[in-house]
Amino acid sequence: MDKNIYLAQFYGKSQNYTNIPSQWYKKYGVKRGLRNEDHTGVLVGLTRVADVVGYQRAEDGQKIDIDGILYYRGIDIRELVKNDRDHGYLYEEASFLLLFGYLPTKNELKHFCTVLQEGYDLPDDFLEANLLHNPGKNLMNKLQHALLTLYNYDPDPDNTDVYQTLRKGLNIMSKLPSIACYAYMSKIHYYNRQSLIIHYPRKDYSTAENILYMLRPDSKFTAKEARLLDVMLFLHADHGGGTNSTFTNVVVASTDTDLYSTMASSIGALKGPRHGGANVKVSEMMERVIDTIGTKATDSQITDVIHRILNKDFQNHSGLVYGFGHAVYTLSDPRAEILRHFCGTVAKEKKMEDIFNFYRHFEKIAVQILSQEKGANMCSNVDYYSGLAYAMLGIPRDLFTPLFVISRLVGWLAHNIENKLYDDRIVRPATKYVGDLMDYIPMEER
Ligand SMILES: CC(=O)SCCNC(=O)CCNC(=O)[C@H](O)C(C)(C)COP(=O)(O)OP(=O)(O)OC[C@H]1O[C@@H](n2cnc3c(N)ncnc32)[C@H](O)[C@@H]1OP(=O)(O)O
Ligand SMILES: O=C([O-])CC(=O)C(=O)O
């Protein structure tokens, strides 16, 4: 008999012993998902790295929804993008700001970029031994694997001293773009039988320029393309201490484990489709929607397809309209606003206006329907337009979430360091035992 049948039987029977009725969570005052009754997050820390604002409190404590604002070290990200004078290192500048708490001078930024650029080279046999000989079918898992392997190349890998954490973290940030690009090349070479192309990163290039340089067979890109990718990396760099992958980082690091294990845990969290992995899901969902109703679809066709998604009758049956909703933002996610603007500008050049206009149309209707159906303001989030922006840059879907990792690594690092410096307690909340006490029954009497 198939052994799985036994397993299914044990599993079925277990429901009599393991069930926890949903009303008990309320009864015992459990904050599910670390959320308060009004869905806002439970306070679990203090930070000066970033602030994510989606609502205000009235004098009587009532939650008032507002347009979203994201601050990096107290500076509105819109100000940072607006004042970026096309120097091409916005992501590096924001990384400096997030890590050190102040805006770098020209000279400081130059030295900081030199530190990153000096770390671009991978250890001698790393590419051959770990990436080419060992292709991975999911690049997020491959990034975790590669990071855990970098541990072996560090002469003092378990040192979690704050300054060493900073140095190791910057070294990982330097190397991750080439690791991700090569992992992709290795994957398509092995699984898709495509030619293997390896371009070594250039030390005079920014993170964004190098990614385009390494990914494109002819290594060519325009300044406008590099700027768009630089902005993308900038927009994903941090999102406060409450976001799942950053909280994961802090939880894991609080055990004093090594930085490689900690970062690998955050990558695992970010991969999830309710979190960073949503950028892939949006792209798949929108492709399927466009295949089904076309870019010239009417309001009622879009409304119909959104209801099908909500009713789990379309695509992956999760019931989620990916790219919408957020734990903090209500009326708008400022990153989505910025990305919409950039996508609109680039769409014409890339002859993708039809698709961009469809995204706009779908977005307006999805926001209306979701807000009505769920009884709360819901907006498009950063993941809604990010895949479209990457597609405009010719970046493959496999790399959408890895690019999020490349960017967010600095946020994880900044919070990791902040927590080591000022909080430094093992994270250890409590759960209440709600099962019965049982007598042990000897085997022959069961
Ligand atoms: C970088 C990032 O991580 S951005 C987020 C990327 N994730 C996505 O785009 C996935 C789709 N969105 C979601 O799953 C959610 O909106 C999240 C995970 C982002 C936020 O979740 P929460 O804050 O827990 O949502 P919240 O509790 O306010 O949701 C209220 C209700 O709306 C539903 N809901 C929320 N978002 C969506 C959505 N996009 N589609 C359908 N239903 C949704 C929830 O399932 C919940 O339904 P219920 O009351 O029937 O259980
Ligand atoms: O804040 C969140 O919960 C998710 C998010 O947008 C991010 O991590 O960028």
Automatic annotation (TrEMBL):
User: What GO biological process, any one, is recorded here?
Assistant: tricarboxylic acid cycle
- This protein's record includes keyword Transferase: yes
Q: What reaction gets catalysed by this protein?
A: oxaloacetate + acetyl-CoA + H2O = citrate + CoA + H(+)
Q: Report the GO terms under cellular component.
A: cytosol
The highest taxon in the source lineage is: Bacteria
Swiss-Prot/TrEMBL keywords = Transferase
- List the active-site residues: 326, 383
* Any one Pfam family match given in the protein's UniProt record, by short name: Citrate_synt
PROSITE patterns, per the entry:
CITRATE_SYNTHASE (PS00480)
Task: Specify the pathway.
Answer: Carbohydrate metabolism; tricarboxylic acid cycle
Among InterPro entries, the record links this protein to: Citrate_synth-like_lrg_a-sub, Citrate_synth-like_sm_a-sub, Citrate_synthase, Citrate_synthase_AS, Citrate_synthase_bac-typ, Citrate_synthase_sf
Recall the GO molecular function terms of this protein's record.
citrate synthase activity
Q: Which residues form a coiled coil?
A: none
What the record says about family reads: Belongs to the citrate synthase family.
NCBIfam families xref list: PRK14032.1
Q: What is this protein called?
A: Citrate synthase
This chain's source organism reads Megasphaera paucivorans
- Taxonomy of the source species: Bacteria, Bacillati, Bacillota, Negativicutes, Veillonellales
